[in-house]
Structure formats: C-alpha cells, structure tokens
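During data preparation, we tokenized the protein backbone, and the record follows.
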Amino acid sequence: MKKEDILKYINNGENEYIEFKEKISDEAIRTLCAFSNYKGGIVIIGVSDRGKLKE
C-alpha cells in the first residue's frame, strides 16, 4: 500500500472497515481477528482514534 493511500484512510477517519490503534496491544489483535473473521478491513497502527499520528 502506498503512503498516499494510508494518509487518505487516516484523513477519512475510522469506519466499519478502517480502525486506528495507537500501538500493538491485545485490543489491536482482537480487532485484527474480528476483521479477518468477518468481511475484512484495515487496522492502522500508530494512529489515535482522532486520526493523529503517534511518534
């Protein structure tokens, strides 16, 4: 995936197929499993729920 695509997802915010996680955690793993067991989706690590990049 290109950087521009990721930034577009971040700018558009979370939805039923896009989820932001600030760090890899148990919650992030559960979200990945849920997406893989349903219709799929994208989890972007390093982004807050408000769409701010974490350093």
